[in-house]
């Protein structure tokens, strides 16, 4: 562990979000998501839920303000207006930690297509169905990094 | 870059100090140090000085309080009581960021022997001679990591 | 995830305990343990606690009955008779899932020496100090594996 | 071996089906199937028959209920309505272990095309011709995984 | 599969015994043997029993006639004169396929030491305890290889 | 070497033809063939002629009876009806070891295109020009493999 | 470090610009640039600013005089005529070290497309937004290399 | 193949003897020699006999004149004064191609010890027992290399 | 070094031209050629000029007589009829060592396209501009290789 | 090539001497030196002589002034006081480019032992016997590196 850094970020995930730049995407995937065969590098987070990983990433990674959409979730198959509890929690987390962003819903197979273009996929053991979110990294400004006082 | 994390920590160095545990050592080496052939994995920090890297590491990594010594510098060859300016700066940094630790001086070849057993060596472009320091990681307590408020 | 298998066992950890044989050791290490530089292959379990991983492993892996000791914890430095709460939980888990085994305490540096000879080290984010345990795999008997009824 | 897990699942195959997610395919191929040059990663199961591997996989992996077809076998060349004995056994196994799914027959070269898109191919030593099956993984629900009682 | 070659020999195992020379050892290990951490390269034979693999190897590999001993099994712990059924089968196989060789018994930990010096370890799913054998390759004479008539 | 196996099959070539399945191709190439840059994995057979390698492969690998053509040679540039001596030998070998198959001639650049899709290319030191042949693997039936009597 | 060579050029960056030839491009990217997922090999320069790296490269690498454009910067989003201070510094550096070249501005996404075709991307920790530049290597003439006098 | 170079030298073997220097050893091993587990890199020459490989190597590689012995063969087990026919051929070849050197005989296990220290082992399919030789490379003089006339 | 082989051919380059077959191309590139990013494997020949490497290759590799063109050089930009001195030397070398072949000139970017399809690029330190040549390997006939007399 | 850098330093050799630090050794070896099997990483410089490489390295790398000896050559076997011409040239070069250092002679096998501990061995095609030298890197001072004026 490290001081001042979210403890859910292991070495590989820290490395991953540190390499990401403005506009790169990261997928936080639930336990049933087909993470391993879509193309992007997979970071295993077995035993951790998607909400925890999302919190950990948003603690240190801003969302993109240059574009109208910077966060997406998977639409419920057969019930496009439903908002599962885990998705409502994603929306709350985004508002608390990243700002006034809407987590947009995306049809299942279109979501897979978005995932194929991401920088990384984090494979969690989130039990709840539809516990998937994609985040787009924004610009980090100098005043936001750690400064020795 | 990432919010709340020292900007001098690139992906590889962040990964490195996140993998270190209680009692592991890291060497921050100057531009003339024989970093590449001592054994430990080398992390290049070309163009950065040793003081900057030391500050960045101490910003997130505590020193070990279980043992009497947790930081060492290389003794000046032929002048064992000398304290080069860069070493005085190391001592100041340690006191400001890590606590009441003495940076102990170690004879040149004994310092190389210690370096051989370190977890990592960070190869900086510190111009100043004797700009080398070894740090021993301490325990990180739960209240020290990032917590979402 | 898979049916009938503990969900905390990700692909790498499942693979690991499946390759282990009679008498091989696995270390479940807390967040401060120096896991990466002792020698054995490290399996990251960032964000998971040591008790959860121990439960998951014991759900599928028996302890060794051929020898007098098959489980060990790290002795508290400076207080060899103390039994930290996390260690008491280890003992309960072992009794519930593996049988009548004592989790023996081992002095800190002797524990490191044992860890160097293990098959794997699982690096958890267990916050509690002394949240480390070593388990010795026993023989699996034919009636214990999955059988299609 | 491991307690409660089918013994035909070696470390690599366990790892494979644990990485698969909702909608991913796995091919269980007979001894004459051109497994090695179609693209997907091959897991060798030399000396084991296809029925055994299919049983082992279905013991821990559900089939997909979101789509009309979740299992396929290769159609006999020149006799499209034939149902070889090994294929009848596949159908029985699927019904016993996975539920009310039909194992659909697919023309030989179309079957190869499906195999090219699978996550894995398991190369068995099934002697019987047409001893090939493709399975599509379904969603695993929380009540289906191992739970410590 | 290949004509005239034992079908239990997959590509990796065929490659292995073809690389072995006069005096090299191969271990056929049961499902509980600690195969993975002794040093030699491991060839997985999950789902196959040790007797089948031994038969397949002896079908194509002679034993060494230059030395007094060319085959060994593990002695039963606590009962050094016992001959488990699987070991009797090993002895029969050796006599039928290799000639008049005794399968010598070796104490458990001495057997591990021999295994560490082998060329390969084949990890089977032999359920029967003590289902382990070490074979020493002999010289292959020109009249023994395949000849086009 | 191994008993009952053609001695020209080294470990890598044995491994190769064991991985091939029904319908896969293997190229046996002469000393001037551009083997290394066509795509398939190359197995070196320096110092061996193409006829010897073809004999060794056909000793253990059947040709495909499901399709009208299962063996091809390169047509002489500028003399399409010529049958070089090495090609006549290929035809004899095929008839003796594989059955009633014609070795069809293919124009030089079309032959290269076929070679690009093969599973393997065996690069021999066959001196004779046009000493190249492509073989298509057939089905191996249970009665053709090695059986312990 | 080396005599007569710019100290900001570490081993990997020296290696990189030495492998580049006439017409190859190198990107010097700021701290927010999405360096890692565009395709070219990334050279980390964490802790160094883009102006320093540009100076170091131009100290040893000429720009291309065969074509009308040999240096490019990213256009400010929403303000195409703006010239950020860091870009003015790039222009000064180019004029001082490389000659009479204009640093042309390129729209953000077109700049990404150019970056995808570069030989290397150097990922700096330049804090200033738009601190990105692409340089095209020119011909090195014999009189320009080091000569022992 | 290449002009003026022995055709039995494939790419790997040519590379090998070109990297060898004054005093390095190469083993040419028969079909029963335990080539793969002694340590040195193995170059397969399946299907070629040891005499052919020895001729090919001596065609381009001189033996060492700085030391009293530069070539060794394995002594017949149980008959130390025997000179098998293949060994007599080795002696003839050495005399014809390398000069007035004796091929010294070495006891079997001492020969293995010498082989462990060689630069390379060439694994031939030499059928004749004791068809093994070790050669020590000498100095190549300028007048011996290829010169354009 | 080796007897009878051109000394400028190091292990890697010898290996390369030995793997090439009839019709494969090799590029010998000058010090400014963009060798590293065109695709083919690059063999470094730093410190050697292109004429020396061309001589060394032609000493052992014939040019292709099956096609009208087997050698090409890069046309001078802006002066298509110019014949730089280094190119005249290439033509002389080809005539002396390979026979009556013309070294055809090819426009710069078309030359790059040809280079992308070559088997190898040899990166020399030829100072002279336009010191680039592409050679197409021909057939080696049995009487051209080394023969023990 | 690069401006202001010795052209004989290719990418790998530049990288090598840039990674070396105070006290590390580099061997420049002649064409007969057994470079490949002593342990250190080998950098090929086929076609270049040892004097050229030594000049190139000394152009950018200082020798060590902290110790009494910083350069060594191999003693002539059987004539310890001889100074071959190539060695005299080494001494001249060292004096011209590095300063007042003696190139000490070392007995052949002791020289090999020193070479085993070097950081790198550069394998040249120096024809002259005894064309070997070992150099010990010294400290580079800030005023010696490249500075933009």
TrEMBL record, chains A, B, C, D, E, F, G, H, I, J:
Reaction catalyzed: alpha-L-fucose = beta-L-fucose; beta-D-ribopyranose = beta-D-ribofuranose
PANTHER family: FUCOSE MUTAROTASE
Domain of life: Bacteria
Span of the signal peptide: none
InterPro entries (UniProt xref): RbsD-like_sf (IPR023750), RbsD/FucU_mutarotase (IPR050443), RbsD_FucU (IPR007721)
Keyword check for Acetylation: no
Protein known as: Ribose ABC transporter
Keywords from the UniProt entry: Isomerase
Pfam families assigned to the protein according to its UniProt record, in alphabetical order: RbsD_FucU
């Amino acid at each position: 562990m490290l001081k001042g850094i979210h403890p859910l970020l292991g070495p590989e995930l820290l490395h991953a979000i540190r390499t990401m730049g403005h506009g790169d995407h990261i997928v936080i995937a639930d336990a049933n998501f087909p993470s391993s065969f879509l193309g992007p590098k997979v970071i295993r987070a077995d035993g951790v839920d998607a909400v925890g990983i999302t919190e950990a990433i948003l603690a240190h990674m801003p969302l993109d303000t240059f574009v109208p959409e910077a966060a997406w979730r998977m639409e419920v198959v057969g019930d496009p207006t439903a908002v599962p509890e885990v998705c409502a929690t994603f929306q709350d987390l985004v508002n608390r930690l990243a700002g006034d962003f809407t987590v947009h819903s995306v049809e299942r197979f279109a979501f897979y297509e978005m995932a194929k273009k991401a920088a990384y996929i984090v494979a969690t053991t989130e039990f709840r169905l539809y516990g998937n979110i994609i985040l787009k990294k924004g610009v980090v400004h100098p005043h936001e990094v750690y400064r020795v006082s």
